[in-house]
């Protein structure tokens, strides 16, 4: 039996850097407010691009050592976010980065895309059994933008939730990362005349491979006080996110609003109290009967709550 804070959040991501880009401020916010934050990363990101010329030989087609390098980057990112509980699904290197959809790397025998669903979910169930998170965050059924490993992370997380529910310790709420259409439309308008326009060539927001109607958003986490932690975590992933990245360009224009606010839809559980025209929650634990501070409670087989 171990002793953990009353509020416990589990995040399931596909590759190192996904956690920082998509949910970094949320993770930093809950870590700073005393919740236990567990990050599960499904692959080492071996097929990622390398934006540091001196490290080009680490690429999959060369020494194939990028995955090991990215472990160190992820450790640094987690430190920046204040997250101390990080696991690789099934252990580091159990599942390999599948690369983008349709590439030959999808068929690698260790590719996460090829993973047996119940076996992979079983690894996540073991983490759930240990930590007993009340809230889980992952991607929607399209993996937010269609990457096979993101889609598989969604499948594994949701299957693990089903299996854990049979045993009675599934998270009460499951959220999927999202981006409101109103935010995307504002971004397209703002950057229309910019020389560093991330929306260049896109005429309508409907052309983007992601975007959620505002009415379907369940939670808006305002962690603007953690935007510096999120940026530091992103910079820790130097092989993947160069200093010239449009992500930093947007941050320079929108500042803490871009870095610090993250959105989610609610896939499982009851929506808690919210505000605004759509009743967006401002806390992923909204509506749950768990303490708001760092009070500690026993978890594990001998200490269920």
Q: Could you outline the blueprint of secondary structure elements for this entry?
A:
Layout: E1 2-5, E2 8-13, H1 18-32, E3 36-41, H2 66-81, E4 85-88, H3 117-131, E5 135-138, H4 148-167, E6 173-178, H5 181-190, E7 219-222, H6 227-236, H7 246-254, H8 256-260, E8 261-268, E9 296-299
Parallel strand pairs: 2-3, 2-5, 3-4, 5-6
Antiparallel strand pairs: 1-9, 6-8, 7-8
Pfam families: PIG-L
Family: Belongs to the MshB deacetylase family.
Protein name: 1D-myo-inositol 2-acetamido-2-deoxy-alpha-D-glucopyranoside deacetylase
Q: Can you walk me through this structure?
A:
Its EC number is 3.5.1.103. Belongs to the MshB deacetylase family. Zn(2+) binds at residues 15, 18, 150. It is an enzyme of class 3 (hydrolase). This protein is α/β, with parallel strands linked by helices. The chain has one domain: 3-Layer(aba) Sandwich (Rossmann fold), CATH 3.40.50.10320. It is built from eight helices and nine strands. It has helices spanning 18-32, 66-81, 117-131, 148-167, 181-190, 227-236, 246-254, 256-260; strands spanning 2-5, 8-13, 36-41, 85-88, 135-138, 173-178, 219-222, 261-268, 296-299. The longest helix has 20 residues, at 148-167. The chain is globular and about 50 Å long.
């Amino acid at each position: 039996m171990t002793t953990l804070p009353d509020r416990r959040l589990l995040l399931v991501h596909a590759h190192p850097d996904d956690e920082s880009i998509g949910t970094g401020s949320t993770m930093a916010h809950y870590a700073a407010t005393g919740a236990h934050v567990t990050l599960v990363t499904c692959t080492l990101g071996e097929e990622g691009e390398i934006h540091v010329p001196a490290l080009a030989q680490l690429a999959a087609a060369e020494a194939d050592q990028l995955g090991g390098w990215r472990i160190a980057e992820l450790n640094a990112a987690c430190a920046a976010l204040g997250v101390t509980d990080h696991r690789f699904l099934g252990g580091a290197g159990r599942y390999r980065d599948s690369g983008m959809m349709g590439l030959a790397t999808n068929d690698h025998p260790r590719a996460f895309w090829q993973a047996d669903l119940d076996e992979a979910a079983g690894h996540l169930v073991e983490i759930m059994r240990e930590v007993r998170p009340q809230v889980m965050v992952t991607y929607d059924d399209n993996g937010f933008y269609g990457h096979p490993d993101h889609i598989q992370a969604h499948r594994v997380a949701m299957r693990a939730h089903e299996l854990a529910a049979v045993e009675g310790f599934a998270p009460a709420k499951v959220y999927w990362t999202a981006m409101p259409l109103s935010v995307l439309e504002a971004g397209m308008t703002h950057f229309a005349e910019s020389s560093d326009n991330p929306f260049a060539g896109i005429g309508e927001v409907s052309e983007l491979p992601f975007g959620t109607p505002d009415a379907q958003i369940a939670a808006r986490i305002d962690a603007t006080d953690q935007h510096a932690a999120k940026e530091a975590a992103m910079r820790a992933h130097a092989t993947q996110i160069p200093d010239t990245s449009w992500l930093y360009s947007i941050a320079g224009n929108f500042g803490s609003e871009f870095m610090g606010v993250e959105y989610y839809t609610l896939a499982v559980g009851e929506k808690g109290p919210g505000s605004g025209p759509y009743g967006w929650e401002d806390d992923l634990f909204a509506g749950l009967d768990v303490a708001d501070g760092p009070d500690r409670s026993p978890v594990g087989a001998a200490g269920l709550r």
